[in-house]
């Protein structure tokens, strides 16, 4: 690996061990075995390096989820079976990715006061919504990008909320089957969409 890759690797390890705000440039340099000056040379600032390292860690997590989902439900599975299988796979990843979730919630607390962080993650957030929609079997092309992104935003809200609950009380988080039952219970009371014949 070169200095740039070493810095990203060191920054990622620091993020997961110390968190976003407690990680210093010196921590990253020490963890990566690269000089402090290399941070500025390759990334401009410690914050830019941390942001890139965090984006990489989140993308890696997304790839891991997608790989786990590939065999979660049979191709002929209906929406309910796919929903439950997908959530069962996602819930299993929480224990392995606890530090990553903790860092993401920490970053959210700082995003209001850090415009560059906000804009950096806005585009990635939109892309993540489409990825989540696809994970749950939504045909993005057929639905159209805006509606697919809205459906993905629903799954993203459910995912983030469930992750927050898991961080606070891992034993109290609903199972995949309970999440499916909750969606069914609530949806039943909504009735048909307006204009549906």
Automatic annotation (TrEMBL):
Q: Which residues bind DNA?
A: 24-43
Q: Recorded GO terms, molecular function?
A: DNA-binding transcription factor activity; transcription cis-regulatory region binding
Tell me the Gene3D superfamilies matching this sequence. Answer: Tetracycline Repressor, domain 2 (1.10.357.10)
> What keywords appear on the UniProt entry?
DNA-binding, Repressor, Transcription, Transcription regulation
Which residues does the UniProt record annotate as the domain HTH tetR-type? 1-61
Q: What is this protein called?
A: TetR family transcriptional regulator
Q: What is the lineage of its organism?
A: Bacteria, Bacillati, Actinomycetota, Actinomycetes, Streptosporangiales
Which gene is annotated as encoding this protein in its UniProt record?
acrR
